[in-house]
Design goal:
mainly beta, about 100 residues, five-stranded mixed barrel, globular
């Protein structure tokens, strides 16, 4: 099992879902420096506890996520994709999201 810690920003508002009769929250985190070669790395996250935090997980919010890492290889329309998934064990808000104007 690989455990990772990611510090980054939410790319969109978190979405509450029901998967296999279990309440979860899904969101994506972009980590890395924008504008530099390589750009950001995107992580698809799923949180199965403390789903009440959803109201604070808004686009742009900086978060620190710790969780179990898994990699999923897929192919669609002849293109190869690598998805980086994190099963969240702990999440902390690390600053404030910028308010939309």
């Amino acid at each position: 099992m690989e455990i990772v810690m990611i510090l980054g920003n939410l790319t969109e508002d978190a979405v509450p879902r029901t998967i296999q009769d279990k309440e979860v929250v899904t969101f994506r985190v972009a980590a890395g420096k924008r504008g530099q070669s390589g750009g950001a790395t995107f992580y698809s996250c799923i949180l199965s506890k403390n789903t009440k935090i959803t109201e604070f997980l808004k686009k742009g919010q900086k978060v620190a996520v710790t969780g179990r890492l898994s990699i999923q290889e897929t192919e669609k329309d002849g293109r190869h994709y690598t998805n980086i998934n994190v099963s969240v064990m702990d999440i902390e808000l690390a600053g404030f999201a910028k308010e939309a104007e």
